[in-house]
């Protein structure tokens, strides 16, 4: 089985186009990696069934608290950004099993990261601190 691709416009303000992919396991994926985004597109949280979100290789300095509304999220790729902190509401993403935070400006992981039940691992490196 292949992927069904749905093209939609995410935001007219940035004239940003993206692909929502539903793979053969019926998982919804959104790839916004490498688009030089300076801010988190607020429309992302409208994809309540989103399971894979790639925001890697952008210029994001923060993630809004609304990220916690993505309850089905399993994979979150935030590597190669400028993040200095993460909102505590990220722990509402209770199905998260993979989180990549490498190449950001984060210090130590916050204590609330211990609240993740399903998280298999967090990829971090402190090269840019």
Automatic annotation (TrEMBL):
Pfam families: LRR_8. SMART domains: LRR_TYP. GO terms for cellular component: cytoplasm. Transmembrane segments: none annotated. Keywords: Leucine-rich repeat, Repeat. It comes from the Eukaryota. InterPro entries: Leu-rich_rpt (IPR001611), Leu-rich_rpt_typical-subtyp (IPR003591), LRR_dom_sf (IPR032675), LRR_domain-containing (IPR050216). This is Uncharacterized protein.
């Amino acid at each position: 089985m292949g992927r069904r691709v749905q093209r939609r416009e995410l935001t007219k303000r940035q004239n940003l186009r993206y692909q929502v992919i539903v793979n053969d396991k019926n998982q919804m994926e959104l790839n916004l990696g490498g688009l030089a985004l300076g801010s988190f597109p607020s429309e992302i949280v409208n994809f309540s069934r989103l399971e894979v979100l790639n925001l890697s290789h952008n210029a994001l300095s923060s993630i809004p608290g609304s990220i916690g509304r993505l309850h089905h999220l399993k994979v979150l790729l935030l590597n190669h950004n400028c993040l200095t902190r993460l909102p505590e509401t990220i722990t509402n993403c209770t199905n998260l099993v993979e989180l990549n935070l490498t190449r950001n400006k984060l210090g130590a992981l916050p204590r609330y990261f211990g609240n993740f039940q399903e998280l298999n691992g967090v990829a971090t490196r402190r090269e840019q601190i």
